[in-house]
Design a protein that fits this description.
Blueprint: H1 3-16, H2 20-26, H3 33-46, H4 62-71, E1 76-79, H5 86-92, E2 100-104, H6 119-128, E3 134-138, E4 143-147, H7 154-157, E5 159-161, H8 163-169, E6 179-181, H9 183-186, E7 190-195, H10 202-213, E8 216-219, E9 222-225, E10 230-236, H11 240-243, H12 249-254, E11 257-260, H13 267-277, E12 289-290, H14 294-309, H15 322-342, E13 346-347, H16 351-355, H17 358-362, H18 369-374, H19 376-396, H20 402-409, H21 422-429, H22 435-440, H23 450-466, E14 470-472, E15 478-480, H24 481-502
Parallel strand pairs: 1-10, 1-11, 4-7, 7-10, 12-13
Antiparallel strand pairs: 2-3, 5-6, 8-9, 14-15
């Protein structure tokens, strides 16, 4: 039977089968969960359907490896630093499950009506036969996820004896009917995921290995044969292998595929992810015109790239993709605040809005010793400067801003307040020789688009600052780089003179 026809029959089964007898009559065929995922994946591939929607940058690396693992019916682990979409990928594996499957009504472990595992399921089948009532479970309810922490117990994962069940049912504590099943048995006929696997205690990892290998568990010393039908998926951070724990060798050996995730390979992929994930289209924006210039998006992404390469930032911890996402959200928020204060309709983020996002950067960088010495805020400002210089070279290579630099060298200063309207800023920018004219050369808009013009001109000024042609003070104003260096030397000299006088 073709896959599309088979799925059509399954849908009809769901509409009419309420007892085991009706299910038998319908011709429903039960499959192991890994066979089910494999068959549905083959159908998607043949139909040219997109796999793992919303996952950007993995089309040539991670996704093909995931496909191979599912086709091979392997348990798998996603290995990568934080913010690399591991959890999202794991949760999207449910799309490879059938929309619904039948279970014995009231079963805690999704008992297959044709071959129940639990004592309860077998008892119900013996008692009712073809009149056994069945329920249908949606694919979303066949996914069980657990974050591994040191306090997780074997009872949480596998189960424990429930004295209340024993007392109410009049059972011996050794009776299987007294078991309160843990998360793994409840994931039977579905997907069981454990995040940060190395944090799981060794004895619990042994329990996982045992049930994967032998299909049996021991609860309070009572051996129970429980050959679960489950797809096991794990995630881990590479540093966890040494920093907090490790995956025991027998369990690691039973994991069929170890798939390494990664950060975006280039700026274009990074900006695509950030634009997709960042919350920028907000309630109440209907009355505003939001535009995020390409150079702003690229600078924000380049900051993350610079941070990942900086020796003062811990590479084992990584710089999450959440870093540029939150920076963009704060930058848009600061531009939104300016539009509300100035009563402007256009929201166009500027470089100053990126500086306003410093609180979103400092908390997402784990610093090495040298980084701690200078502080997260100063380091983040250096990253903004370097990132702006990198993107500036790509936009304005070969364009001469010498008249602009000369104007600052003559002692002139320029302060563009982050709360100043675009019209006010343009009036100030017009006093800088050839700045506006030179800025518009590579950009596709005109002088009339004031909000975009201010953002672009501030980008140029920051780019010149990155090239050390002009200086940027703590208030965000621009001035002569030569004068700024001279002033700093003067301050140092004055400090030394004061020290001599004191002596």
């Amino acid at each position: 039977m073709g896959q599309s026809l088979w799925r059509l029959v399954q849908t009809k089964d769901m509409e009419r089968a309420k007892t085991l007898g009706e299910l038998r009559t319908s011709g429903y065929v039960s499959r192991l969960v890994k066979d089910e995922m494999r068959a549905n994946l083959i159908t998607k591939l043949r139909n040219g359907e997109r796999l793992f929607a919303g996952i950007v940058g993995y089309d040539e690396t991670v996704i093909p490896q995931l496909v191979n693992a599912v086709l091979a019916r392997h348990n798998l682990i996603l290995l990568g630093l934080r913010g690399q979409a591991k959890s999202r990928i794991i949760r999207q594996l449910t799309e490879l499950l059938d929309e619904e499957i039948p279970i014995i009504a009231g079963s805690e472990i999704n008992d297959n009506p044709f071959a129940p595992l639990s004592a309860f399921g077998r008892q119900q089948l013996d008692l009712h036969g073809d009149e056994l009532k069945i329920d249908w479970v949606h694919r979303e309810n066949r996914f069980v996820e657990k974050l591994a922490t040191p306090d997780v117990t074997i009872a949480d994962i596998l189960g424990d004896v429930d004295p209340i069940k024993a007392a109410k049912g009049g059972h011996l504590l050794s009776d299987e009917l007294t078991i309160h099943f843990g998360l793994l048995p409840r994931a039977n006929r579905g997907i069981f995921a454990i995040n940060e696997l190395p944090d799981l205690a060794g004895k619990i990892q042994v329990g996982l290995f045992n049930i994967m290998q032998e299909g049996d568990v021991q609860i309070k010393g009572y051996p129970i044969r429980l050959p679960l039908d489950v797809m096991l998926v794990f995630s881990a951070n590479p540093e966890d292998y040494t920093a907090r724990g490790k995956i025991i060798t027998p369990l690691k050996d039973r994991i069929g595929a170890e798939i390494a995730t990664h950060y975006p390979k280039d700026i274009s992929l990074g900006t695509a992810i950030t634009r997709q994930e960042a919350w920028t289209r907000r309630e109440g924006f209907e009355s505003f015109d939001l535009e995020i210039p390409d150079f702003i998006s690229e600078i924000i992404e380049q900051i993350a790239f610079e941070a990942r390469d900086d020796q003062r930032i811990d590479k084992r911890s990584g710089v999450s993709q959440r870093f540029p996402i939150t920076v963009l959200e704060i930058a848009v928020s600061n531009a939104e605040r300016r539009a509300l204060v100035t009563d402007e309709q256009e929201i166009v983020p500027r470089i100053s809005d990126i500086y306003a996002a410093l609180p979103a950067m400092t908390g997402k960088m784990e610093l090495e010793y040298e980084g701690e010495q200078i502080g997260a805020t100063r380091l983040a400002k250096e990253l903004i400067k370097r990132a702006t210089g990198e993107i500036f070279d790509g936009f304005f290579l070969g364009i001469d801003f010498e008249p602009t630099v000369q104007w600052f060298d003559e002692g002139n200063k320029l302060l563009l307040s982050e709360t100043a309207s675009a019209e006010e800023c343009v009036m100030l920018l017009e006093s800088v020789p050839e700045l506006i004219e030179s800025t518009l050369v590579p950009l596709e808009f005109g002088c009339g688009e004031k909000a975009r013009l201010v953002s672009a001109c501030e980008f140029v000024l920051e780019g010149l600052y990155a090239q050390n042609k002009i200086s940027r003070n703590e208030e965000g104003g621009f001035e002569s780089a030569t004068k700024a260096r001279r002033d700093r030397r003067g301050l140092i000299y004055e400090d030394l003179t004061d020290l001599d006088s004191f002596n």
